[in-house]
Predict the structure.
Amino acid sequence: MRRIVLALLAVVALAGVVAYMAPVSGQADGEAAPIYGIKIPAGYRDWRLISVAHEEGNLNDLRAQLGNDVAIKAYREGQLPFPDGTIIAALHWNYVSSEENNKVFGRVQSFIAGAPKNIQFMVKDSKKYAATGGWGFADFTDGKPADEAVHKTCFPCHEPAKARDFVFTRYAP
């Protein structure tokens, strides 16, 4: 029962942060990311949740992955490779201890999304992005694309996930 309550609190907190972050996440009519030419897709905040993650080490953040309708259909059907038109968004936040939640639990154990870090996108177009496994990549902070050096690291990072069409995130139904 306690795990269910914790999971529910985490989902509610994440949903609140997603709603909070909407105004600072950038606009679809903004600048395009270098190399791949990807802009922030209109309406991505309304996409469905694929999964959430907590990364430790140098990243040390909370993440939510969202997918457009094409991505969600492919995940649900177990379709690999992903079809052209798939777009996956990864929203990243620093995480902080929740004093309010910890009061309920009587100890420090609850962490929630804090300040936003960045948003990343993977766009599947097997012809346009043939040199990078069919995927284009984009990284934005405060609605502005990261520089070319950052974007050059995207595909090499995803190469170890080649067997899963270069996608790390697994669907959490």
User: Anything to note?
Assistant: The two ends are 20 Å apart (CA to CA). Residues 54 and 89 are 16 Å apart (CA to CA).
